[in-house]
Amino acid sequence: MRRLTKAKKRKLKRRLIFIAAFLATVLAVSNIAAWFIKNTRNVPGGKTEKGFDYSLYNVKQPSVRKMLLTENVNSRPGTELKKVNGIVIHYTANPDTDAEANRNYFEGRKDEPDENANKVSSHYIIGLDGTIIQCIPLNEIAYASNDRNADTISIECCHPDETGRFSDDTYNSLIHLSAWLCGKYQLSRDSVIRHYDVTGKMCPLYYVDNGKAWDKLKDDIWNYFLDCKKTENTDKD
To answer: With 137 labelled, which of 3, 12, 86, 201 sits at a CA distance of 20 to 30 A?
Structure first.
């Protein structure tokens, strides 16, 4: 067997290094492509899903009872909401109270001294029976989510006990309302977040303590949205 010369050995070594580097690059590109497909096709991870045609879906607006707050510096400042990049879910932390009582609490902030008042409100409150009350117009900010007030819609949810778990009626109305908002603002599944995800506050408590329940809630919202795909009949209406 003929021995390779030093020059040929060096040439072979360079070729093997090139092949190894090429294969490593192909593997890296494949991994990046797989991650990109996963995060932009089935379950969107950003504000909108790339390549996703929201116009093909039509979630009907849920029934909403408008009880807008009086404009005031403590709960409805009248500040324009210029963009919507997400939906923030809260719980009232006030067990077994209804939506109207919590709305009236927000309204009462207008009577507090400006320097001492808690600045709190929410765009929507969902009651134990599923009633949805709107407190703030969607083109104005609410005092609910700290540094995300400027680009989110907030939803407060009533709950029957201290666990913070929503009743079935509250849950179902939350799914419908959130899915409608996702369609209205072209938001993704992961644009629905908890107050906890903004500040670390244990809100909504049950869905912070139970990560699987939170994931299911987001899945239920997104699946509700996907189930509202237009048909030929609805397109003609």
So the answer is: 201
Output Rg (C-alpha) for the chain, integer angstroms.
Answer: 25
Contact present, 109 and 77 (Cβ < 8 Å): no
Average pLDDT, the chain: 87
Cβ 160 vs Cβ 96: under 8 Å = yes
Quick check: 102 and 125 in contact, CB under 8 A?
yes
Cα-based distances in Å from 76 to 41, 208, 225: 38, 27, 30
The position carrying tokens 């609410």 is: 142
Segment 47-89, tens digit of pLDDT: 566 678 999 999 999 999 999 999 999 999 999 999 999 999 9
Q: Which among 179, 175, 126 has a CA at the least distance from the CA of 155? A: 126
Q: Is the dihedral of CA 24, 30, 31, 33 positive or negative?
A: positive
- The token duo for 72 is 């005031």
Residue 13, helix vs strand vs coil: helix
CA distance 160 to 41: 37
Bridge partners (DSSP) listed for residue 88: 154, 193
φ and ψ at residue 158, rounded to 5 degrees: -75, 160
User: Residue 229: pLDDT above 50?
Assistant: yes
Helices 211-226 and 168-185: angle between axes, nearest 10 degrees: 60
